[in-house]
Amino acid sequence: MNQRDITAYRLTSQYIDTPSTNISAAEVVQYMGAMQAQDYHGTLWAIGLRTGLVQSDVIAAIKNREIARTWPQRGTLHFVPSKDALWMVNLSADRLLRAAVSRQAQLGLDMAVLSSATMVLTLSLRGGNVLSRLRIMDILQDNGINTENGRGYHILWYLAQKGTIISGPMDGKQQTFALLDEWVTDSHILSREKSLQQLTKRYFISHGPATLQDFMWWSGLKAIDAKIGLKANITQLECHTIDGKDYWSKSKPDNQDSDDNDTAFLLPGFDEYMLGYKDRSAALDPAHASKIVPGNNGMFLPTIIINGKVVGTWKRHIKKSGVVVTLSPFEKMTNNDIKSLDIPLKRYERFIELPVDLHWS
Q1: Model pTM?
Q2: What is the DSSP string of 273-327?
Q3: Which end of the chain has less neighbouring CB within 10 Å, N or C?
């Protein structure tokens, strides 16, 4: 294996160039370990493009409590299998909560306030209630708990880290929340050692080839825990040394040599193909990095991928008549490259269940 092989392996390992059309939304999220989900609609597409499911299928999986959003590794919003949410959050919660103490103090969120918020929201959600974020903010305010200046977000984040709440289906544009122990009645309970083994296995099988440093960045784990997880899976993974770095993956990805694999893709913002690695240089020329994260503001734009490389960005605009997709390549594209985009546009049109009108910027 060499540097040029990395992106080809990853596209296949991540089910991007060869979607696994016989698995559910929950199964692909479990396979991926977790899927970054700040962009709700983008992550629906991230699941759809790896499975062949349409948008309504993925939304149904959320409503049916098969997958859910919460803040596991790195304390960042991800979709996870609902049954795995508790152990995945617990794996990093203690460290994340310790790291949040100073910020909470700046916001005036001491333990007295957080305990009061916990009691108020537990009572409000108990009995199967699913409440919108806006309604939760009103309830906290009515009980004398200030939610302004980001305090409301930090309260929700704290309760998620404590394993108290989990995000439910969207209510229009509003995120909703429920009690985790009511929303997920059959949570998997794993020891810390088993949790490390499972998360590490899922990451390298779905994201490989990847380095230990990539995994540490993605998972937020310390080196000692990441190494424990890797050691527990050492017999199931292959190591490839490329330019002096060790890359770990499952054995050769299925269908890696297939002539039918697609070569062009429209990936959502925050997709695991970008966010799954500390070192993104295999797919993204560092000279273009600022173009997918304008102003270095942490917001990753949707990307155009051709032959494993990021060659531009795209955006969508929903209209009553359909979806306008605007492509913004970094450089002038060849006729073959333009033609190769027909398939991903058709895949997206099928997923979104609306006609797509293509524009160029």
Answers
A1: 0.95
A2: HHHT-S--TTTS-GGGHHHHSGGG-S-PPPEEEETTEEEEEEEEEEETTEEEEEE
A3: C
